[in-house]
Design a protein that fits this description.
four-stranded antiparallel beta sheet, 13 strands, binds adenosine-5'-triphosphate
Length: 303
Amino acid sequence: RYMDTVLKTTELTKVFSGKKAVDHVSMTVNRGDIYGFIGKNGAGKTTLIRMAVGLAAPSGGSIELFGSKDLTQMRKKVGTVIEYPAVIPHMTARQNLVAQCKLQGVKDLSVIDRILSTVGLESTGKKKAKNFSLGMKQRLAIAIALIGEPDFLFLDEPTNGLDPTGIKEIRELIQKLNHEHGITVLISSHILGELSKLATRYGIIDKGVMIDEFTAEDLEARCKSSLMIQVDRIPEACSILENVVGTKNYTVNPDGTISLFDHLDEAGLINTILAKHDIIVNSISMSNADLENYFIQVTGGDR
Ligand code: ATP
């Protein structure tokens, strides 16, 4: 029986020599998600994935897979492509998959042809993996992870170093795995824009801390055109927006700015109304935040 939640971490923490690489992270990946796990280099993505798949021991907190704490059992249904992939350079694609079948005790080798064609490597013949393009190597690494027929796939920076064509191929492969094979996917990346064509949910991690989890719809809403308003007293400003300006069509962002989604051509008026009520308006400006701007806004930029 499948639970709706495939991964749930609670206050998950990893300390390396006194430094929290992952700091009380609670995150949820639901069945069917393509979960975009976003953070700058060094934010803690790989460390969290390593704990989830059993390559590193947590310093604190807990992990559930498929709604269960029996991780050894549940990890049989999990595939991982992480850091240096399991590709053996002097072997062909097929030989790599045969080797992986042996390793995992898979007797029915008919999975190999199916998987080769799924990842688009069915006609690589005698070509050895060391002569593959980076994109082909990455797709072979994903093929290796598919041998155990996982329900949930962790992909750590799968498009790192790829050219636009390679990125597109990986993106289409991930979509195929998700849509046609029903595989839930978690993809880490330091580039939010790259996942925006793909992810159904997002988690943003910064300096080990989960800053925000949200859906693709939330993100779309947050990236709408808005007036970005910076004030000294946020709750008071919100109450003026509601009671004087007469709108509830705004959000308060994690960085404390207010995004107002209507009255877009009345910045001056909004400014005057707030000022009349003794709110100090530090700035008010039109924002067409795209994804990347949004990411920089919530993580503070400096990358
Ligand atoms: P990247 O995209 O660069 O892989 P990341 O978000 O995956 O970044 P992690 O690799 O998880 O980040 O690293 C998080 C922090 O933990 C970093 O400061 C890193 O230096 C530190 N770290 C990771 N692994 C170890 C380790 N084995 N020993 C000590 N520190 C580590």
